Automatic annotation (TrEMBL):
Residues 1-86 form the RWD domain. It comes from the Eukaryota. SMART domains: RWD. Its main location: cytoplasm. PANTHER family: RWD DOMAIN-CONTAINING PROTEIN 3. Keywords: Cytoplasm, Nucleus. One of its GO terms (biological process) is positive regulation of hypoxia-inducible factor-1alpha signaling pathway. It is found in: Cytoplasm; Nucleus. Pfam families: RWD (PF05773). SUPFAM superfamilies: UBC-like (SSF54495). This is RWD domain-containing protein 3. The keyword Nucleus applies.
């Protein structure tokens, strides 16, 4: 009632050379949909991450044309008819982008997200899932364990950060007390902000365990994030 609804749709689309492409679409409809655009996530084993992002962008462009009226069905029909053109255009744009300097970032710049998880029952599977999402979305940072504290620190394009949050909140990533797969309900967004010049950019995503609070604090200090540690971590110990 307060967060809207989320649902997944899988469709087979004939792409170039008449090969089948399985598109996995996730739509999150906010409570004031269709007056507000839905959040859309696109995944496919047959497409690259960049191509999936291009498909998502094109769907959002189409969604704007249907603002204030139900649109999901129309969007699905549109991508079934236009996928091969989007993929073809994506390859051209990709070649153009490689000529840009590496220092060029998106309009929103690089953002940072700090999450707190209450627990992980199926830890090995959960960790593997987080690593895959970070890799797919080109996010760097740390999954940090210290005692009972579990933190996820991510850096990357703002749109990818938002897509990660959708996946984290809507996917069955853990198991409940009876061993049944369940969604993550005990997650807190501690901070979401633009990366500043004094913040170190993580080059990779790593899973790390710390035996003491001092070790965890040094990780934040090394990244130029001491204020974030001071503000958000000590309260978790209470």
């Amino acid at each position: 009632e307060t967060h809207g609804i989320t649902f997944r749709i899988q469709i087979n689309v004939k792409e170039l050379l008449d090969t089948d492409v399985l598109l996995k679409l996730l739509f999150h409809l906010p409570v004031n949909y269709p007056l507000t655009l839905p959040d859309i996530s696109v995944n496919s084993d047959q497409l690259t991450r960049a191509q999936c992002m291009d498909v998502k962008d094109k769907l959002l462009e189409q969604a704007k044309k249907h603002l204030s009226e139900p649109m999901v069905h129309d969007l699905i029909l549109w991508i079934q008819q236009h996928l091969k053109y989007v993929i073809k255009q994506s390859a051209t744009v990709c070649n153009e982008k490689t000529t840009l300097s590496k220092g060029t970032s998106t309009e929103d710049g690089i953002w940072m997200l700090l999450l707190h998880l209450d627990h992980m029952r199926a830890k090995a599977k959960y960790v593997k899932t987080v690593e895959k999402w970070a890799s797919d979305l080109r996010l760097t940072g740390r999954l940090m364990f210290m005692g009972k504290i579990i933190l996820i620190l991510l850096q990357g394009d703002r749109s990818n950060i938002k897509e990660y949050l959708i996946l984290q909140k809507t996917s069955k990533v853990d198991v409940d007390s009876s061993g049944k797969k369940c969604k993550e309900k005990m997650i807190s967004v501690l901070c979401e902000t633009k990366v500043q010049s004094q913040h170190k950019r993580f080059q990779t995503f790593e899973v790390k365990e710390y035996s003491t609070l001092d070790e965890l604090q040094k990780e934040f200090e090394t990244a130029g994030l001491t204020p974030f540690f001071s503000e958000f971590v000590p309260p978790l110990l209470k």
